[in-house]
């Protein structure tokens, strides 16, 4: 759901509320939440790049959770995304946002 939301940020007006609900009710820094945290991190970074004013505060909370995670992979991914976003926003866009356009199968 989070990744679908991040790909359709322009039509999902209730997106920030859904993400906040997941953040407050489903996430913690335990190893069991690692997959959810990495998904939430990726989705929030994508949403922030598309709608910065609405997701800046939420992304800060997600970074805090991820940086305090006991899972090194979650921590490291958050550190990379944070560095990208804070140093080169255009590079961050090219790395974090999925490329959209016609696929090879559309030309058949």
What would your notes on this structure say?
The structure is a single chain. This protein has 108 residues and is an all-alpha fold. The protein is built from six helices and no strands. It has one domain. Helix content is 69%, strand content 0%. The N and C termini lie far apart (30 Å). 21% of the residues are buried.
Helix content: 55-70%
Order of helices and strands: HHHHHH
Give the biggest sheet.
none
User: What Rg, in angstroms, do the CA atoms define?
Assistant: 14 Å
Please tally the helical runs, counting DSSP H or I stretches of 4 or more residues. Answer: 6
* Count of distinct strands: 0
Mean pLDDT: 80
Distance between the termini: 30 Å
Write the layout of secondary structure elements.
Layout: H1 2-7, H2 15-26, H3 34-50, H4 52-67, H5 72-87, H6 89-96
Helix pairs in contact: 2-4, 3-4, 3-5, 3-6, 5-6
In short:
The protein is mainly α and 108 residues long. It has helices at 2-7, 15-26, 34-50, 52-67, 72-87, 89-96. The chain has one domain.
Keywords:
108 residues; mainly alpha; 6 helices
